[in-house]
Design brief:
The complex is a heterodimer of chains A (952) and B (250).
Chain A lengths: L1 H16 L7 E10 L9 E6 L5 E6 L5 E8 L3 E6 L6 E4 L7 E9 L4 H10 L4 E4 L2 E4 L12 H7 L3 E3 L5 E3 L2 E8 L2 E2 L5 H7 L5 E10 L1 H6 L6 E9 L6 E13 L7 E11 L3 E10 L8 H8 L44 E14 L3 E25 L4 E28 L2 E26 L4 E27 L6 E25 L9 E28 L3 E23 L6 E3 L5 E20 L2 E19 L8 E20 L3 E12 L3 H4 L3 E2 L5 E4 L7 E14 L4 E13 L1 E8 L6 E8 L3 E14 L3 E18 L2 E21 L2 E16 L7 E16 L3 E14 L4 E16 L5 E8 L6 E8 L2 E8 L4 E9 L14
Parallel strand pairs in A: 1-7, 12-15, 33-37
Antiparallel strand pairs in A: 1-4, 2-3, 2-5, 5-6, 8-9, 9-14, 10-11, 11-12, 12-13, 14-15, 16-17, 16-48, 17-18, 18-19, 19-20, 20-21, 20-47, 21-22, 22-23, 23-24, 24-25, 25-26, 26-27, 26-28, 28-29, 29-30, 30-31, 31-34, 32-33, 34-35, 35-38, 36-37, 38-39, 39-40, 40-41, 41-42, 42-43, 43-44, 44-45, 45-48, ...
Helix pairs in contact in A: 3-4
Chain B lengths: L1 H14 L9 E9 L1 H5 L7 H11 L8 E7 L3 E6 L4 E2 L6 E2 L4 E6 L4 E8 L2 E8 L6 E9 L2 E10 L4 E8 L17 E7 L4 E10 L14 E3 L1 H17 L11
The chains are: A mainly beta (952), B alpha+beta (250).
């Protein structure tokens, strides 16, 4: 810097030395005035490179309008002078042999005041000036929907439309209208302006163009035509896409049924509307949509129900996820289909529409799905008593069919910046049937067969469910003060017919007549209705600085009505006779009220909240066997409890977070457990209700920490959780050692506990090429079960440990191996000889290879080993899936794929489990080896990425 | 050399006594980050994944942006958060704002920048950088000032930068790391709307008291280190198919 200053000081001497030759440094100067020769002081003068308008230097004019640049090297410059309200002036700099370049007086033309005021000040729209072209952004000039370009032009300053539709811009008639620079249907400029919708236009440019003649001849005739160019909006905000997959294949197990799948979806959308349809059918255990399909189907309505929980509580109601679900699915669309047990045939389809504007968000969808599932299962279960044990072996075949129609509607109205209203309805109509036939043997420790039970059951169910919520949120003018109220009505009607047929043999009966003790042939008609009304209020008030109080009230009233009529096939005349001992009738009313408040502190990422609620349950029920009102038993219960709550989270520097919380869950006993009646529809397991049950309560504590270093890609997280149960509802078991008949009765037991954890740690071995992840979840739990009057304490300690490697050495090869071990040790206090260890090992890997000519190979191997040494149980399930596919076409929109599923033909559904006083294993015949040839067409192009996606 | 011109230009501005009252004040900006647009630039995502993101989340209101402020006079400027903490609109939930302060001294041609990125806190001290601004022909109104458009390109982050500067406030300051135009930058558009930093309010007043730097600690780096760090991080992340942008200032 100093050197340069020195240079500047020496400049006069230096220039004198070189006076004879062309100077290497120049001085540029000039004067600015307006059109009437008034000097323009403090105008901005910029020296730009002509080729790209790069800013080289800038200055301001003084109060006399004069400016100058010294020390300028020779170059190809453009001088640009701007002054607010004037059309910028551009001037070429011509270097001569004189050091001083005097540009003389430069006159700036004002922008029409009208134009300037309207475009710049009122519409706050950018206005472009390129020489004589003035460009507008139509978004700033509001026209009603459905308007044509002509209506739009009429609004633009400086443009008029005469009666005949001729356009006059800046006083001249427009000769030519082009669209994206191209002529639009012939010579009549009105064609475009009268026919194109205004919404389609991104920019309107008005300028003088050379005449067609001069363009053709290349001779400039000096005449110019006023031209309007309409620039269309890019298509990003509007479009349609879809994909379809069809595959057909052979079953590798000589089954007559070929395997096949068809799946397709189509979306059409613009910036306000989204419309989509989806359909799928297969017999390859894909029970429904994947999450990606779900998002494509629901669009902007995918996740917005997160905000609809009207049951305000601690934390203001928080966010609550209610999508997904099991096969039954409840009211929401089942997602994440993939059944790895049994066989299933699936059909699903739906239609969805969303509309989103600034004020409203509306989502509506209809979805149908049906699944027919076949399970052939072998189950073994060992039940422990104080001395000895007994085993049950079950062989069963079950066929389930369920068809669901689901309707969902949600409307969110932003009334103004302070008020929001949300209405949602989710409904389901479903019909299903099941058929179960099973054969169960009861074996004593010396392998002596004690009992035998053959069951043939079938059910038919029709169900209607609907849930409606209205939610209103109001923000007060005072920042942080808000109010919300919700009201819900849910209704369920369930009609079912169940046929139960069973034959039970008791081999160790002393009386020979008792050997065949129970032959049941029952028909069971059940009608039930549940009505639920709920309302909640939430009020948030800020106080002091950084503190809020949150107060909530929840009220609900539920009424259940159940009428169950059981008929026996009468021995004599083949008529069905009512069986009062099994029939039941009840009417229950539940009232629930909760009032709570919490204090929240929030400052710079440190959030703490603590509160207390009081809640009361009231049960008012009538239970009866048969329809005789005088046999009805009244059950009235009141239960009040206090619930504390605390939560804490801290956002630490450099991507580290810490959180902790304490909450209490209270669950009311279900109706079946409260019924003071005996259900002996299964003569080997007799259920007894308990009207004295109290609600169960669990205290939960959790603690967590996580960190991520985005530069080194290292991550670490820890989670700890503990729960303690009070009045847990547990089925007391009374097992007759002679007959092995189990009588269960729910009781309240305190003292069950569970301590769990998760630790994860991942880091790259070689950045972008290899990453390793470890995870471990040690845990211990204690469960209490009274068995034949003795309290059995089941202690389980478990450890799951896993390691995963992501190997991504190149763009043509990726490999992801993993190994997981799960070890569970279970100890039974009443029978320590039964203590055992269950081990499950999983070894797997996914490999992707990109071959030349758009060929790809994908292989996936999963090897599971289930062992329980005490039982000599050792089941190995190696499953290898492999496919080769080719992506077709230049735009990669199609794919043809040949797949082999379960190459070793060993797939099996396996489950092993130890709890309370039993240990069980289950094996279910499952879809095994098949081949498939499939074709996919995706309008948006196939995804040819072979790396596994992290988060983004 | 450019720097020299630049300082000369500043001297010119300073020399104009008529503008003395126009050369200091506080600009309050709203910084809006459009994560869908940013994520749509991730080269490893398929068209299908980008459309899915746009359809699912594109209609969500991302709420108000982050409030930022630029305190400037003709010699120096400080750009940092407008509020002491990040919080939801109703204030019920707050979060820590990552360290972010950008200091410019036009007179001494010095810069100090303090920020958290890539899991660390840095303190950058170096001499004033320059940008190759290309002056455009558009004008528009931002916060009551007629602004002219200028464009440049950030080769490290591969960003197209559009700035709207007010000729009426002849100070070469600006939001984020940008500067060097014949007027304060009142709106900054990074990559066609990925980030928009737009002035909400301009108060011209004496700011001598506000122009004091807080105590700052961090790993000391230079401009060249900064470029190097970002270049490597972006390249590594894209290669590993991770989003590089959430851990840096976009």
């Amino acid at each position: 810097m100093r050197k340069i200053l020195l240079l500047a000081l020496l400049w006069p001497c230096l220039s004198a030395l070189y006076a004879q030759t062309t100077p290497s440094r120049f001085q540029i100067q000039g004067m600015t005035t307006d059109t009437v020769a008034n000097p323009l002081g403090s105008a901005t003068v910029m020296l730009l490179q002509r080729k790209d308008s790069s800013l080289v230097n800038f200055s301001r004019t003084n109060e006399k309008g004069a400016f100058s640049f010294r020390n300028i090297k020779k170059g190809d410059y453009l001088l640009k002078i701007t002054y607010v309200g004037f059309i910028p002036l551009e001037k070429d700099i011509v270097f001569g042999d004189k050091e001083l370049i005097d540009l003389g007086t430069l006159r700036l033309k004002p922008i029409t005041k009208e134009l300037f005021e309207i475009v710049i000040k009122t519409a706050r729209a950018p206005m472009s000036i390129k020489g004589d072209t003035i460009e507008y952004n139509p978004a700033s000039f509001k026209v009603p929907p459905g308007s044509t370009v002509e209506d739009l032009l009429r609004k633009l300053p400086g443009v008029q439309i005469d009666q005949n539709g001729n356009i006059i811009a800046q006083g001249q008639q427009v000769q030519k209208v082009t669209v994206d620079g191209k002529r639009f249907f012939g010579d009549d400029p009105k064609m475009a302006t009268k026919n194109l919708p205004a919404e389609a236009i991104n920019k309107v440019q008005i300028f003088n163009d050379k005449t067609e003649q001069s363009k053709v001849t290349g001779v400039d005739d000096g005449k110019q035509e006023k031209t309007v160019n309409l620039q269309l909006k890019d298509s990003f905000k509007k479009g349609g896409f879809g994909k379809v997959t069809a595959g057909v294949g052979l079953d590798g197990n000589n089954s007559a049924n070929p395997r096949g799948e068809i799946k397709g979806n189509y979306n059409k959308f613009d910036d306000k509307n989204q419309f989509s349809i989806i359909g799928l059918t297969n017999n390859t255990n894909q029970t429904g949509m994947s999450w990606d399909d779900y998002q494509d189907f629901r669009g902007s309505g995918s996740f917005n129900q997160w905000n609809d929980n009207g049951d305000f509580g601690f934390g203001g109601g928080g966010y609550y996820i209610s999508i997904g679900g099991d096969d039954d699915g409840g009211l929401s669309i089942p997602v994440g289909g993939g059944l790895n047990r049994g066989y299933s045939n699936n059909i699903a389809g739906g239609i969805n529409y969303n509309r989103n504007t600034k004020k409203i968000k509306t989502n509506a969808s209809y979805y149908y799905n049906s699944n027919r599932q076949v399970f052939d299962a072998l189950r073994t279960r060992e039940n422990f008593l104080q001395n000895g044990s007994f085993q049950t072996n079950e062989q069963s075949n079950q066929i389930n069919f369920v068809g669901n129609h689901r309707l969902s509607f949600r409307h969110e109205q932003t009334i103004d910046s302070l008020n929001t209203l949300i209405f949602s309805n989710n409904s389901r109509l479903n019909a299903g049937n099941t058929r179960l036939s099973s054969f169960t043997e009861y074996l004593r420790s010396n392998n002596f067969k004690s009992n035998e039970s053959t069951i043939n059951n079938s059910t038919l169910v029709d169900k209607i469910e609907t849930a409606n919520t209205l939610l209103y949120r109001h923000k007060f003018k005072k920042k942080g003060r808000s109010f919300a109220v919700s009201a819900s009505y849910n209704f369920t009607n369930n009609d079912g017919v169940a046929d139960q047929n069973s034959l039970n043999l008791f081999y160790n009966a002393t009386n020979p007549d008792d050997v065949i003790r129970q032959l049941l042939d029952l028909t069971n008609n059940t009608g039930s209705r549940v009505n639920l009304f709920k309302t909640s209020l939430l009020f948030v008030e800020p106080f002091a600085k950084r503190f809020f109080s949150e107060t909530f009230v929840n009220l609900s009233h539920r009424s259940d009505f159940v009428d169950r009529n059981v008929f026996d096939l009468a021995k004599e005349n083949g008529q069905r006779m009512p069986v009062d001992s099994l029939s039941s009738y009840y009417k229950n009313n539940y009232n629930y009220a909760r009032l709570g408040t919490s204090i929240r502190y929030s400052y710079k990422g440190l959030n703490f909240s603590g509160g207390l609620a009081v809640q009361t349950f009231q049960i008012d029920g009538k239970f009866g066997l048969g329809q005789e009102p005088n046999t009805f038993i009244d059950v009235k219960r009141n239960y009040t409890t206090f619930i504390p709550n605390a939560s804490f989270s801290y956002d630490l520097k450099n991507n580290r977070y810490f959180w902790s919380g304490y909450n209490v869950n209270v669950n009311q006993p279900n109706t079946r457990d409260l019924q003071p009646i005996i259900d002996n529809s299964n003569p080997l397991i007799i259920r007894q209700g308990n009207p004295d049950l109290l609600p169960s309560l669990s205290h939960n504590i959790n603690l967590g920490y996580n960190m991520f270093n985005p530069a080194s890609f290292t991550s670490f997280n820890v989670n700890l959780y503990y729960s303690y149960n009070v009045n847990q509802i547990i089925y007391n078991q009374q097992i007759d050692p002679a007959t092995l008949i189990t009588v269960t009765k729910p009781v309240n037991i305190s003292g069950g506990q569970n301590l769990g954890s998760y630790i994860g740690f991942g880091f790259p071995l070689k950045k972008t090429k290899a990453t390793i992840n470890f995870n471990a979840s040690p845990g211990i739990s204690k469960n209490l079960t009274p068995i034949n009057g003795v309290m059995n304490e089941t202690n389980t300690n478990s450890l799951r440990f896993g390691v995963r490697l992501d190997l991504t050495p190149s763009d043509v090869f990726t490999f992801y191996p993993n190994a997981n071990w799960s070890i569970g040790n279970t100890k039974y206090s009443i029978n320590t000889t039964q203590n055992q260890q269950i081990v499950t090992q999983t070894y797997g890997g996914t490999m992707n290879i990109r071959l030349p000519k758009d060929f790809y190979i994908n292989s996936n191997f999963n090897y599971q080993i289930y062992t329980n040494d005490r039982f000599g149980f050792n089941q190995q399930v190696p499953v290898l899936n492999s496919s080769i596919y080719k992506v077709l076409g230049k735009s990669k929109k199609a794919e043809i794929r040949l797949s082999l599923y379960d190459a070793f033909n060993r797939n099996l559904g396996v489950n092993q489990f130890a709890n309370q006083n039993y240990v069980s294993q289950e094996r279910i015949q499952t879809l095994a080896r098949y081949y498939m040839l499939s074709f996919t067409y995706n309008m948006r192009g196939m995804n040819t990425n072979i790396k596994r996606r992290g988060w983004y | 050399m450019k720097k020299t011109f630049f300082s000369l230009a500043i001297l010119c501005c300073v020399a104009l006594g008529a503008f003395a009252q126009q050369t200091e004040g506080i600009v309050t900006y709203e910084h809006k980050y459009n994560w869908i647009k940013v994520n749509s630039r991730l080269t490893y995502l398929s068209k299908e994944e980008k459309d899915r993101m746009q359809l699912t989340w594109g209609n969500e209101d991302n709420g108000p942006g982050t409030k930022m402020k630029l305190i400037f006079n003709d010699k120096q400027s400080i750009y940092t958060y407008g509020n002491e903490q990040g919080q939801t609109e109703d204030g019920r939930y707050s979060w820590r704002q990552e360290e972010y302060l950008v200091y410019r001294n036009f007179e001494k041609e010095k810069i100090i920048e303090h920020y958290e990125m890539l899991g660390k806190t840095f303190l950058l001290e170096d001499s004033l950088m320059s940008y190759n601004w290309r002056i455009q022909n558009q004008i528009k109104d931002v916060a009551g000032y007629v602004c002219m458009k200028a464009e440049t390109f950030d080769p490290i982050k591969n960003h197209k930068i559009t700035a709207w500067f007010a000729q009426d406030i002849p100070v070469p300051a600006g939001p984020e790391r940008y500067l060097g135009l014949p007027g304060v930058i009142l709106e900054l558009d990074i990559n066609d709307g990925d980030v928009i930093v737009s002035a909400q309010k301009v108060e011209l007043k004496n700011v001598d008291k506000d122009l004091t730097l807080p105590k700052m600690k961090g790993k000391k780096i230079k401009n060249s280190d900064y470029d190097q760090l970002l270049k490597k991080h972006i390249a590594d992340s894209i290669k590993a198919q991770r989003n590089p942008y959430w851990s840096i200032r976009y």
